[in-house]
Amino acid sequence: MEKGLVDEELIDLLLALNENENLFTTSSCAGRITIGCNGKNPEDKRGTEHLLTSHSPISVYDVFKALDGKRCQWLWIKASHPLLDIGVKDIDLAMKLVSLAKTAGFKYSGIQPSNCCYRVIVRGSDNIQYPLSGRENGHTIAKVVSHANRFLLNGKLKLVRFVGLLEDEGIINSLEDTLFYDEELL
Asked: What region holds the tRNA wybutosine-synthesizing protein domain (predicted)?
């Protein structure tokens, strides 16, 4: 795991998963909030400028700072749940991981066959996204920020539940008191 390529708050979990000889991780995201700006087509990822990307809750100030002086035809704020892509060597273990993920609240988790293994994709509801004009007042931005932060933290709480279930089943060693969010935010 190269520094900067992995969300720091997931490192302990990814290391624990990779310690299990039947598992390996391929990609992950701790959940994030982004503000995107695109001049032509919001579906064009290559043409999108990310004005803000945060794996932690954001503030109204963060949004106004990111939007300051920007002109975009398409502008939006998006919050995404965590995502884990886990290679699993055994179908029974893969099915167990999906069951645990769904129990933790990641209801869109599933198995994808691959040449090397069974790929378990741990994911919740995709995301929430709000269009922005760039002319919103503080009250409107505060409501949007509140919803985005709540969605982000909800996903991180599901991740904590998933880790607890993995530990209870002996799939990973205990991560002690690892949290994927700041307790003071709740």
From this structure: 2-165
Name the one residue in this structure whose structure tokens are 């060693």. Answer: 173
Q: Domain ranges in the chain?
A: 8-177
Contact 76, 61 (CB under 8 A): no
Residue 23 burial by CB count (10 A; 0-12/13-18/19+): exposed, middle or buried? buried
The one-letter amino acid code at 147 reads H
The counts of H helices and E strands in the chain are 4, 8
Contact criterion met (CB below 8 Å) for 67 and 34: no
CATH-assigned architecture of domain 8-177: 2-Layer Sandwich (3.30)
pLDDT of 181 strictly over 70 = no
DSSP codes of every residue in 44-96: -GGGEEEEEEESS---HHHHHHHHTT---SEEEEEEE--EEEEEES-HHHHHH
At 81, give phi and psi (nearest 5°): -75, 165
Closest CA to 86 of 145, 166, 154: 166
Cα 65 to its chain centre, rounded Å, is 23
Nearest to 31 by CA among 58, 55, 62, 4: 55
Q: What is the pLDDT of residues 82-120, one digit of tens each?
A: 999 999 999 999 999 999 999 999 999 999 989 989 999
